[in-house]
Amino acid sequence: MSETFRNSWSGKFTSMRMFVEQGHTNKSSKRVNKLLDMVVKRIIYLVVALALACDCLIAQPTNRQERNLIAFCKLYGYIRFFHPSDEAQNVSWPKFAIYGAKEVANIQSDDVLIKKLKVLYLPLAPSMKLDFTKNHASFKQNRNQVIKPETNPIYWQHEGVKLPEFNTIYKSVRVNRRNGFQEDAQFIPLFVLKKNDKITGKLFTFKVLMRGDTTASQPSLQIGNSNGLNGVKKSDLTNVGDNYIGRKEMSYTFNGKIAKDSNMVIGLTFDGKSPISINQSQLFIDVDGKLTEQTNAIGDSESALTSFPTTKRSIIIQTTKNDAPLFLQHPELGETNMREIVPGITCSIPLVVSGSDSQTFPLGNIKLLKTLNQSIDQTIPDQIGGQSRGRLLEFRLGDVIITWNAWKHFFPYWKDASLSPDRLLHESFKRAFADKTAVDFFHTLKWMGAQLNDGHIFTSFYDKKNIEDEASAPLTFTKAKNKVLVSYILDSVLFKVLSPGDLIDSIDGMPAESFLRSREQFISGSWQWKEQKGLFTLTNGPKDSFQDFVALHDGKSVKIKIKRTLPGVEYRKGCFMLTPKLNGEIAGNCFYFNLTEDSVMHRLAQFEPRLVNAKAIIFDVRGYPSEDVYPVISHLIDKQITSASFHTPQLIYPDFEKSEYKTDSLTITPSTKKYGGKIFFLTDASAMSYAESFLGLVRDFKLGKLVGRATAGTNGNVNFISLPGGYRTSFSGMLVTNNDGSTQHLRGFVPDIWVDSTVEGIKDGRDEILDRAMQEAVK
Fold it and tell me: Where does the Tail specific protease domain start and stop, copy by copy (predicted)?
């Protein structure tokens, strides 16, 4: 409560006292004063308490606000992902989420809410019906509809879901309808620089003027080699900035150095799902410190430059082919998605519409759609990826709506989540209202992901104000006997005050175990992955800031302030700092190979003749393999085997209703050279995804013994969600089952030989998991 507010109340009671004192004796006046002082103090304390309580309430959505937002949110997913009208493809869905949340939040009645939802959604879904549930009998499905001549049924099919900005294995198509734009990223070549010693190694500047839809991915400069105009070979992409390509025409600039050994192609790569207009491109080369524009035309044999075919024109990226079905399952014409979006309000939305080559039916109101898009553009800034947008409530609510709908309809592991979808939405809205800054909301997004218990959920925030993970302290931690201990020291100066094996009593004034749990609450996945990631991110924080520790060193409690001088850590191999030597023989005819290192397969090939007669081979899989290691399996089998099954959801209905799956697996044939001796695989919770697919073959076909600790329990290809405000998150988009039909989601693979860290082993700097494997190898 403000000082002015407090003083005004004190003034009122002072006046009351003066009024009461009139007509009283001095003695009685003193008693009255004393009594009034007590009353005044108690009332002021009560008013202060009520004011503070009101402040807390202001930070929470009312039941009315939450009802409005839930209704808008559920319609958002149903129409964006499952209603196939052309009109629904002509809106910026990220901006619409923000705009709609702002429009409905403060509506005060269901009558007004229904009217507003119709204003928002009918321009996108002309055949949508929305009314009070008591009137839903009028929402009749017409299964007897007939496709008119020269029209086709149009409907959505999803294998997983294709989301904007990222190239994944997942697909979404409107069957029998041209989506308008290429699904896959494509390279648009703009210049070829022919090999020429005069310009080799010189700096160049490439400028391009373009515009597009705000859902378009960021442009990336691509450099490729070419043997001519028709022989472009793509190379790695280089990300060039944080700007969305908006509807407002903007100039983008890229810089680089001209290659030495070949012709060079300069162009742009886009996710072709959104329309892009390239209206002008220019190339400048630094000649004697001066940027000179290159304008030579095709066909000039003396020229170092070839353009495609001129530097000034407009390119629209689009397809002319209708999308074919991804699978056989499909909704019937007349079939609708009827749902009660909140108690008392029901929607009915067609899953199939008819369409000609030029439009879907029924036709929407073009004027209303144009008005809607204009209102969105006027209300929501074009640069929705701009920094710190998360400080705005409507951005936070919009991001919750986008994220929740992607997870709700396409995340396949809801049965293993900590909260139901509806409960998650309720809690997420509450947190979004309470957040004050963009970084606060970053924590909310991480918390949301943690409730799904999916180790593939990684949430990031690209903003200059997000400094909490930019650096880390130069030491690492592990757990032994449920205590947090120092495992490695990465700065020699710290050896004066700390040693490996020292117990950490507190961190920043909090008991070390409690501090670790405070990190784990924002990590998604199994208990073993939460703990492992919590330990290697334990010191993340702002660069050059200090972290306070209380440790038990040489039998004494010591207080240490450690500066964060190293880059922040997001992932660390379990074998970090543990590799005993180069891959190869480590004892008499016993071999060790770290499958998470680069070029390990080349090293294996060098030793192959000796491995056939080896006494023991130890493969380290404490981490993520950096290359294809499946060929190792072929040297351990006598017959062809099949990997775990990867099940990609095939969806035509919301909420995973009547879901089917596309199943894939990997077949491995035996090598003519089978490895000999005992086989061991070292593992822990840093082994996830691809590593677990590999280890699943070992476990299913008993190809060796697993030694160490449980794997992460996370597998299946990742899908990604890009969010307004600079946020990004992800999730597992498919189910994975072992050969016996079981899953290892959250469970991981439990080793045949479990090895816990010990204080003595940490102090001695031993790799206790490798030591145990060696003990077994020489038995």
Answer: 555-756
